[in-house]
């Protein structure tokens, strides 16, 4: 297996070209925070990722978490790595200072988060969930609960989970059966939850479970779901731990990948009821949980970038090292010289740059929705977050399947051999289109709530921003060809939007039939937007004689590859949308 090194120059370029990090920090009135500090933080995170977490990636794959008589035992080395992670303050980067956090921008946390996910995806799932859970608690819980739980959640001293899915309630959470019975100042929780990531382990003194359950008076459906804090160990008023709560992991799933991340079946209330505390108003738990889920959806998209980067680094190293070919003088050469290998590497490289850029743009929109005093502008940035989240989650994780598969292909037969380690990235990546709402759900969300509900107004705002970038391309003589390709892709997206608005009212199957194609079209368009911004920034730096010329020229070439090889997929997805629901819905159930 190859070593992992975070691409620092890529981060610096993206934070300048796509985010304008210094301006973002100024708008947020973050005194002393800017690109120089950010790069120092990222460099330190890179050391922990490459030196501590990355060597454990293979360990977690081959010696995964195990269920013992004393609960789940995490993979060897994970506990020490987690202790170093928390000691470095990495768990608290974006949390409010009132709870011990550092209140740094989300986009910086996203940049650092790529390091954790690339170096060890299974390990990184644990602190990723904690960040979303902490945000949900701080936003929605009572002051008493926040005071008791938030500080140790922020520091990473206590881990967190979210418990939604049940054996009879997957995506359809309206069917969940877990019960919450009032009992004095708390509730007694009983029921079973499945697919609980990091549901149990020994890395922390306590685990704070966020559990969806129904009260006795709950109305049917999703409007009758409440959210509860259910700690693994009871906590007194002084924050001290007491007896074990009535909950346990009853089994671990045997999975295709991420073996170092325990996926638990959790049982609550086998001996009378697990003590739980209501978060916010009763019957409003699903909306509270979505605070955590939306946070996690962008993070899962980021995982697509991260595992792709790890696969790419290994593929490049192998291609430069693998001898297969003989010159006339008898000397050997590597497969890196083969045009088709170069094609695959370029596809990986271009995809990752577009993916990373979109993840950072979306994360920066979260910051902009919080910073400043202009309520109208903050609301517009919040709308952009809503629009981009399903695209980030869906397109990035779908593209990760292609990139990690190419990583195997470049290795040839050795890619199919587990000892090389490249197959792990492919196996680990396969869960990402399923996590946090399948990509089919993301596509429906994009088409329904994010497009049809506002008659495409938010899409129009995005299209206007993309049009502005195209105009800047067209003004540069050397980039006019890029402008033309981007314009064609944008027109395909506009036509797809029009098709949706025109056909959905009379064909109820239309939105669902074309939603995935629409999501992918938007993904490739937004990826093109990223690459266009990259080209503009690289061209400007070259004109000024600033920066590393070879690095900047590579940016121009990589973007051109994207425009020529990947952006045309927008046309294919629009053609699929134009066919509507006819072919999708043509066969009866019996004909399948």
Produce a short descriptive summary.
With 592 residues, the protein is α+β, with helices and mostly antiparallel strands.
Number of helices: 18
Helix percentage range: 55-70%
- Overall geometry comes to globular
Number of strands: 14
For the record, give the distance between the C-alpha atoms at the N and C termini, rounded to a whole number. 43 Å
Show unreliable segments: none
Mean pLDDT: 96
**Most strands sheet:** 8 strands, mixed
Name the structural class: alpha+beta
Strand content: 5-15%
Rg over C-alpha atoms, rounded to the nearest angstrom:
24 Å
Walkthrough of the structure:
With 592 residues, the chain is α+β, with helices and mostly antiparallel strands. It has 18 helices and 14 strands. A hairpin with a 2-residue loop joins strand 1 and strand 2 (71-73). Helix 7 (121-140) packs antiparallel against helix 9, helix 10 (339-368) packs across helix 17 (549-566) and helix 14 packs parallel to helix 16. It is globular, with a radius of gyration of 24 Å. The two termini are 43 Å apart.
Describe the secondary-structure layout.
Layout: H1 8-19, H2 21-27, H3 35-53, H4 55-62, E1 66-68, E2 71-73, H5 78-87, H6 106-119, H7 121-140, H8 143-155, E3 158-163, E4 179-183, E5 186-197, E6 206-213, E7 226-231, E8 233-235, E9 241-244, E10 247-252, E11 263-268, E12 274-278, H9 285-321, E13 323-326, E14 332-334, H10 339-368, H11 375-411, H12 422-429, H13 439-447, H14 457-474, H15 480-503, H16 510-544, H17 549-566, H18 569-578
Parallel strand pairs: 3-6
Antiparallel strand pairs: 1-2, 4-5, 5-11, 5-12, 6-7, 7-12, 8-9, 10-11, 13-14
Helix pairs in contact: 1-2, 1-3, 1-10, 1-16, 3-6, 6-7, 6-9, 6-10, 7-8, 7-9, 9-10, 9-11, 9-12, 10-11, 10-16, 10-17, 11-12, 11-13, 11-16, 13-16, 14-15, 14-16, 15-16, 15-18, 16-17, 16-18
